[in-house]
Amino acid sequence: MSLIPCKVLTTQKTDDRLVYMTVEKPEGFTYKPGQFVRCALPLVDNPQSDADFIGRPYSMASHPTDNELAFYIAKLPEGEVSPQMFDLKVGDTLYIDDTAWGMMSDMRLAKGETLLMMGSGTGIASYLSFMKDNLWSRFDRVVVVHSVRKNADHALTERFEALAESHKNAFDFVSITTREANVSKMNGFNRRLPELIESGEFEKTLNVELTPEKARVILCGNPDFVQAVKTVLKERGFTAPRRGQLGTLVSETY
Ligand SMILES: Cc1cc2nc3c(=O)[nH]c(=O)nc-3n(C[C@H](O)[C@H](O)[C@H](O)COP(=O)(O)OP(=O)(O)OC[C@H]3O[C@@H](n4cnc5c(N)ncnc54)[C@H](O)[C@@H]3O)c2cc1C
Ligand SMILES: NC(=O)c1ccc[n+]([C@@H]2O[C@H](COP(=O)([O-])OP(=O)(O)OC[C@H]3O[C@@H](n4cnc5c(N)ncnc54)[C@H](OP(=O)(O)O)[C@@H]3O)[C@@H](O)[C@H]2O)c1
């Protein structure tokens, strides 16, 4: 069986649908920022094989050097797995696959001035992992863009700000709230990201040049969000890495 039992160490629920949790890291488990792993729960009392589990992929919000694994999970009320993940308590067992997957890495991007990590919903989980990876040794400036429906969904903002504490002058957090008035004090928008980019409002407010000459982009989250932003960026000349060649844009869809 490739699934390894791991004890849940902490759970932090910010409301009735979002949880940030840490679990034991299996011995020898390795991964890179941006990767995900299959998390699984047993379907029967004494699971004997992988067939006795139901699982889904979740991105690591932790850094490979951290002692524990962290996940940021949204409960989909009609979902099979996420409500059970949401209900896990400290001391419960979560099963983790022995192998991490995923190609969403800043190392596949050519060197550039500004790195923009854009995500929707829980799609920004991996960006916490990237933030602990000393991005400022490769990029002059780092911008995290988080698009959510409601202000309450901006539950990770303070974690990002804490990780950028020693790079305050070279970091911006952009909050987009699309289904109610945005209450953030800095860099807060109320419209979808593709519109903000196309209108020029995004670049003007952030004082950033969103071109493949200057910027590098990581995109993650809702497939519609990722596709819509990708379309706008591709029109501007951004390209994915191909055949061993570095790119200007990498992405992962949920
Ligand atoms: C590479 C990868 C990494 C992921 N990382 C994370 C993560 O870090 N945090 C996280 O919360 N989720 C993440 N997901 C999504 C996660 O794997 C599950 O799909 C999600 O938790 C729903 O599972 P479920 O069993 O509860 O719902 P299901 O029973 O599989 O689906 C219920 C319904 O919801 C729809 N649905 C599935 N996923 C979503 C979604 N994300 N948004 C809206 N509708 C959806 C399905 O189409 C279906 O109609 C990731 C997915 C991928 C592919
Ligand atoms: N967030 C909640 O309060 C809430 C509550 C109950 C259930 N849920 C369920 O949880 C699931 C995931 O929720 P989520 O909050 O992560 O929502 P989501 O639907 O993935 O939306 C997250 C962000 O992505 C934006 N977006 C979606 N499609 C886009 C596109 N094509 N172009 C540009 N931006 C786009 C959304 O804008 P728009 O708002 O304009 O779509 C929103 O700002 C949803 O399917 C929903 O069923 C969510």
Question: In a few lines, what is going on in this structure?
Answer:
The chain has 254 residues and is an alpha/beta fold. The chain has helices at 82-86, 125-131, 157-163, 193-199, 201-206, 223-235, and strands at 3-13, 18-24, 36-42, 53-59, 68-74, 93-97, 114-120, 141-148, 171-177, 188-189, 215-221, 249-253. Helix 4 (193-199) runs parallel beside helix 6 (223-235).
Describe the 3D structure.
- The chain is globular.
- The chain is built from six helices and twelve strands.
- The strands form two sheets. A six-stranded antiparallel β-sheet has the order 4-3-6-1-2-5.
- The chain has helices at about 80-85, 125-130, 155-165, 195-200, 200-205, 225-235; strands at about 5-15, 20-25, 35-40, 55-60, 70-75, 95, 115-120, 140-150, 170-175, 190, 215-220, 250-254.
- α4 (about 195-200) runs parallel beside α6 (about 225-235).
- α6 (about 225-235) links the parallel β11 (about 215-220) and β12 (about 250-254).
- The protein starts with a strand and ends with a strand.
- With about 250 residues, it is of the alpha/beta class.
- It folds into two domains: about 5-95, Elongation Factor Tu (Ef-tu), domain 3, CATH 2.40.30.10; about 105-254, Nucleotide-binding domain of ferredoxin-NADP reductase (FNR) module (Rossmann fold, 3-Layer(aba) Sandwich), CATH 3.40.50.
- Helix content is about 20%, strand content about 30%.
- Bound molecules: flavin-adenine dinucleotide and NADP nicotinamide-adenine-dinucleotide phosphate (NAP).
- Flavin-adenine dinucleotide binds near residues 122 and 252.
- The site of NADP nicotinamide-adenine-dinucleotide phosphate (NAP) has 20 residues, from β8, α4 and α6.
